[in-house]
Amino acid sequence: MTPEGLRNSAINHGIIICHDCRKAFPISMDHQSCPRCGAKLHKRKKHSVAHTWALLIASTIMLVPANFLPIMTLKSLGQGDPSTIMGGVLQLMDHGMMGIALVVLTASVIIPVMKIFGLIILLLAVQLGWTTNMRQKMWMYRFVEWIGRWSMLDIFVVAILAAIVQLGSLASVTGNSGATAFGVSVILTMLAAHSFDTRLIWDKHLEQLEVFP
Amino acid sequence: MSKTEMSTIDPNTVLVCPACDLLMESRAVPDRHEAECPRCQTVLISSRHHTFEWTLALAIAGLILFFPANVFPILSLKALGLVQSETIYESVFAMYNNELYVVAGLVLFSAIIIPFIKLMLMAYLSTCLLLHYPAPFLAWAMRGYQQLDSWGMLEIYMLGVLVSIIKLVDVAAVTPGIGLYSLAALIIVTLLTSTQLDSYRFWRRIEQLERRT
Q: A7, A99, B107, B165 - which has most CB atoms within 10 Å?
């Protein structure tokens, strides 16, 4: 494709596509239902920036109880205190299981924080017109979208341990309310990533290319 | 863009990138090749050989594997003569018993219900499309499958099982059950299904069949 061709966005040529089945239609069909799959046609995802901010703020708020409330309690011979996510990681390190501690730390702490920062950068890119390094931004979005689900790891670990470690007074595991907050936070960031429309950054990028060619 | 240019483009002859809105001429993609957006590197079309046959075979294999993966124990724990085992459903039930209803719901949906619905939808779709049978709800099933895609989390549950095994190694003897092997096979089948799915060809076949009715 020629450099000029790479500046052709469909919307400037009167074409929109269905978000679900990707079929192209004339722009006059905006707000109608897609004849092929029945989804509503929109030029861009509706209120993308506002929805993404709202979900992102909600998930950031949920991360606070998720990290300060205990997620599970291991009682062995009647002894044991509730532990938080970081507490669990430190416990694994104390037992010399560095590898697994790193996996849990990545999935439960590093990924959620990275996802939130990544989405904030993308949102600000749209709102403030930070449109350099477009390839990097797309790579970042795809990464945030793909990695999000892996944070559910700790939730599954709690659920599995609570089901299997039921040896009466010898050892037992129960889940605590921090798990709810963490699970909700993960779901909210996944929804935030889904509601972001990357085409908005490209619209800004092309706008700026016209002003400063 | 001039107004005349806007009216001359036929939506049926173009391909539009869903991630950056680049407008391209639609061209046939040979079997086993992928079309990538030249502007943002998003994969636009991944053309698969015998896509309907593959997805049907994989969906049936997945439905067969789904039952042992859910019925047989995934892990068994032995300590001082006590034996405790768990299935995916029992981890949901444990969260329910701990009064963590949201977590129980998350595990139930992401590790049991959504993977099952995805397999059923794919079996239905690929059977009808392979046989050119204009069944009802084809577009609806395809949209549902695409939307549920990232919410099935079997592979993360599997990683949770592995983390749990390592955490329990010090406490007691853990043995993997038939359920774990079935779950591993089920995950491979589900991942293969998404790689063998040629959604471009699926949507085109759905369109042809809908036109016939």
A: B107
A213 confidence band (pLDDT: 50, 70, 90): low
CATH architecture of the domain formed by A47-211: Up-down Bundle (1.20)
Percent helix, strand and coil across chain A, each rounded to 5?
A: 65, 10, 25
Burial class (CB in 10 A: 0-12, 13-18, 19+), A3: exposed
B30 and B60 assigned to the same domain: no
Q: In terms of domains, do B40 and B70 share one?
A: no
Residues B56 and B30 in one domain: no
What secondary structure, in 3-state letters, does A121-177 show? HHHHHHHHCCCCCHHHHHHHHHHHHHHHHHHHHHHHHHHHHHHHCECCCCEEEEECC
Distance set, CA A103 to CA A21, A108, A118 (Å): 36, 9, 20
- Read off the pLDDT band of B83 (50, 70, 90): confident
Range name among A53-67, A167-181, B180-194 with the lowest pLDDT average: A167-181
**Quick check: A156 and B79 CB within 8 A?**
no
**Is B97 found in the same domain as B29?**
no
**Closest Cα in chain A, distance from residue B21 (Å):** 5
pLDDT in tens, A49-73: 999 999 999 999 999 999 999 999 9
| Domain count within chain B | 2
Q: Is the pTM of this model over 0.90?
A: yes
Instruction: Calculate how close chain A gets to B19, using CA atoms only, in Å.
Output: 6
Q: Same domain for B39 and B75?
A: no
Domain membership of residue B133 as a residue range: 49-212
Nearest chain B alpha carbon to A75: B171
Tokens of A87: 């507490």
Residue B103 sits in the same domain as residue B41 = no
- The residues, any chain, with a CB within 8 Å of residue A35's CB and separated by 6 or more, are none
Q: CB-based burial of residue A128 (10 Å sphere; 0-12 exposed, 13-18 middle, 19+ buried)?
A: exposed
Q: Report the 10 Å Cβ neighbour count for A94.
A: 9
Residues B89 and B54 in one domain: yes
Domain ranges of chain A: 1-43, 47-211
| Residues facing residue B212 across a β-bridge | none
User: What does the block give as tokens for A84?
Assistant: 């938080």
Residue type, B138: L
